[in-house]
Design brief:
The chain is α/β, with parallel strands linked by helices. The protein contains 19 helices and 21 strands. Helix 1 links the parallel strand 1 and strand 2.
């Protein structure tokens, strides 16, 4: 491209624009601008030519039409080494524009304003800005396009290095960012309008945009490639915003397990620990201290805890770190760590240590899963008990049983179905996950819990289709059960619970996790 001689600046977000324009002016670049941008630049002593002076036409329709002009489009789209283009530009006296600095009306910010009216949303759909950005980006070999204040310093440095010229790689990189900017903006407008006028919580169309955080060593298995992405166009949150303090590179499986562990441990307000193996909790516990919560969770299944992911819902202290350091684990995730805890964990150099902000869990998002040719979308399972939750047996749960039932019911939400959780004194003692029949899940949880199944309570993510699961639990010494109810054989199931002296609650709400 030729040396930058003329720039058009029209920005809604004026962060850093005065300094950027002064840099251009110092290179003897003529600056063309519009409305509020031109007034700001002029008030800071920067010489500015009005767009209307270049187009020969005033801004009209309350500013809806400012830059939609053949003299703007021609100055951006003319290919400099195309002789026919240059003849037409000269014939129509169209000044060439070498750099466009544009950012767009705040459409997303507008739609999230409380009580915003539809007419205001429509007025915040930018027209001229995207047109100029796309024109400049299409002709990137001759025109530089800058769409974000975050790039001002980079652009200034590139111009200084090139003596007023850009390298081809810089122009191409700016063009890619420009098309991403307009694509994202159009998708946001289209998504909003797709929601409007529809009663369903799920719109007719979904537009997705993700930015890569990093490549991963491999996927679930070494022969599979993988990458980690966050939602595009918004600040990172949740696991995507987690900070890795130490340890080896995170793997695909590490991230999947870390998400499962973090979601479960955040179910609790008291100090809690969750130990995850292959997305299922092999041990979960609450206690007065984080150390005790960890020790209780570990005791639930010490064998499975080897090579696990551990999540803590409070700042990790030295006492907890000392206990953690005795076990080989893949990763630890917590809101924060005391300096002495980090010092202890640093001795295990390969241990991945992550910190994550509990304040931003799901932000009301939906859950998404890919299937062949499409995706499935659903609400996040944030509910706990249904409105028809009730005690259905002759015996009522004791106060201690009630606390443990509530604890187990929160845990079973996070176990792959068919799911059974046995719990006692604020800790899991046995977990039966992912079995094809519910009675097998009961048997597995009892097998894991022995000999602590006696005196425990049981949570089932879905109803018992037959009484056999209740009979197994009764023979093992389970004293109370929480389950959704809703089976055609509920009467038989309740009768079995009464025969074993088991107290049972129907929640009216199922928690399948496939």
């Amino acid at each position: 491209m030729r040396r930058i001689e003329r720039a058009l600046i029209s920005v809604y977000d004026k962060t850093g624009i005065v300094e950027f324009a002064k840099m251009l002016a110092s290179l003897k670049v003529e600056i063309i601008s519009t409305g509020g941008t031109s007034r700001l630049l002029r008030s800071n002593g920067i010489a500015v030519r009005e767009v209307s002076d270049l187009t020969g036409f005033p801004e009209i329709l309350d500013g809806r039409v400012k830059t939609l002009s053949p003299r703007i489009a021609g100055g951006l789209l003319a290919i400099r080494n195309n002789s026919e283009h240059m003849k037409q530009v000269a014939a129509h006296e169209i000044p060439l524009i070498d750099l466009v600095c544009v950012n767009l009306y705040p459409f997303v910010e507008t739609i999230h304003k409380p009580g915003v009216q539809f007419d205001e949303v429509i007025e915040n759909i930018d027209i001229g800005g995207p047109s100029m950005i796309r024109a400049a980006a299409k002709n990137f070999q001759d025109v530089a396009v800058v769409t974000s204040p975050a790039d001002y310093k980079m652009v200034a440095a590139a111009l200084a290095e090139g003596g007023g010229l850009f390298r081809h790689e810089t122009l191409f990189d700016l063009a890619r960012k420009a098309f991403l900017c307009t694509a994202r903006y159009d998708a946001q407008v289209a998504q909003y309008l797709s929601h409007s006028g529809h009663d369903s919580a799920f719109p007719p169309n979904i537009f997705m945009d993700f930015e890569k955080i990093s490549d991963l060593r491999y996927g679930e298995n070494p022969h599979q490639r993988a990458g980690f992405y966050k939602w595009g166009g918004r600040p990172a949150y949740g696991l995507a915003a987690a900070k890795q303090i130490q340890g080896k590179e995170l793997s695909y499986n590490n991230l999947i397990d870390a998400e499962a562990a973090w979601n479960l441990v955040c179910e609790f307000d008291s100090a809690a620990c969750c130990i995850i193996k292959h997305t299922n909790p092999c041990g979960t516990a609450i206690a007065d201290s984080l150390r005790d919560a960890y020790l209780k969770a570990y005791a639930a299944d010490p064998v499975s805890a080897f090579g696990s992911i551990i999540a803590l819902n409070r700042t990790a202290d030295d006492e907890t770190a000392t206990e953690l350091a005795k076990l080989f684990v893949e990763a630890v995730i917590a809101p924060d760590y005391r300096p002495e805890a980090l010092s202890i964990l640093a001795a295990k150099k390969n241990l991945r240590v992550l910190s994550i902000d509990r304040a931003a869990l799901s932000q009301g998002e939906t859950e998404m899963r890919r299937v062949s040719g499409g995706i499935l979308l659903q609400d996040v399972d944030n509910a706990l008990f249904g409105p028809e939750s009730r005690i259905v047996t002759k015996r009522r749960p004791t106060e201690n049983e009630h606390r443990d039932l509530h604890f187990a019911w929160r845990v079973v939400k996070h176990v792959k179905s068919n799911a059974i959780v046995l719990a006692e004194s604020g800790r899991t003692v046995g977990v039966g996950a992912g079995q094809m029949s519910r009675v097998d899940s009961v048997k597995l949880s009892i097998q894991k819990a022995q000999p602590t199944a006696k005196g425990s309570v049981l949570a089932s993510d879905a109803f018992f289709p037959f009484r056999d699961g209740i009979d197994e639990a009764g023979r093992a010494g389970v004293t109370a059960i929480v389950q959704p109810g809703g089976s055609v054989r509920d009467a038989e199931v309740i009768e079995a619970a009464d025969e074993h002296g088991i107290a049972m609650i129907f929640t009216g709400l199922r928690h399948f996790k496939h």
